[in-house]
Amino acid sequence: MNTLGLSLIMRMGCICTRESLNINGVKYNVKEHLGEGGFSTVNLVQSPRNKKLYAVKKIICHSIEDQKLALQEIEYYKKLKHPNIIELIDSTFKGSADIVVNITSEVYMVLPYYNRGTLHDYLGLKSLSKDYMSTKEILRIFLGICDGVKYLHNFKPEPLAHRDLKTSNVCLSDDMTPVIMDLGSMAPAKVQVCGSQDAQKLQDIAAERCSMPYRAPELFNVESYCVIDERTDIWSLGCILYAMCYFKSPFDIIYERGDSVALAVLSGNVTFPVEAPFPQDLHELILYILKINPSERPYIYSVTERAQTLSNRLDNIV
């Protein structure tokens, strides 16, 4: 991805600076430089006015296209209002990018700071001692993520797809409410692919913006004539649900080994540990979601209904 994964905004360090940022007349003191990647940096900042901590994402745009994508991300933030989707507190941009004369512009986004970090961070800590989450807690968090995804998929006038759902793009609030973040890959959900050129273009965009261990099969090998829809996100949800059970996506280990994630994903071979501390119903829910053929994959309403039914069943067990 060209922009830095927002999971970096959750890391606590010890680098203190006296740098400050002025965004639309509001001053923020930079407390820590948290990381960078591609053309983005993320800083932890504090407002001298209310002493609250925020995360400021800065994107350096080297072309009009870069600038357009960054400003589009801001527009999505402004349009979307849901408790399970991160809010944009403020934003601005400076300059005008022009690749011909090597002029860059800068886009700034002020976002909430989540002290608990991301779901990825949380699972990483639990994996150290194999401290499995309870099925009930897994489903509670999963249903919260699904609520945010349902809002996107039902958005008017046009359904939206996040296109990069993963554990590191889900923050956890103080009460463990999941909050979806990083809208840099978001796009209209339905994409009509007409010919090999369209297919290659979409495949290249997916390779750049969609994290491989959570990427839907149809985005690895885009057919020349097809319709890609919001069910790319459903595949990612299945990977997230698996990760909440076993700390990593079913394709993370393959990715870490350097083997072909594309081949593993397209094979559809999802296995579970032999000594699984979870009910068969939860495994079946994961397999119900992770259908290779997108036309067989459920929509978000069916996923939510089945997950809620399982959660209710657990409530009734004495």
From TrEMBL:
Record keywords, A-Z: Kinase, Transferase
Q: What is this protein called?
A: Serine/threonine-protein kinase 16
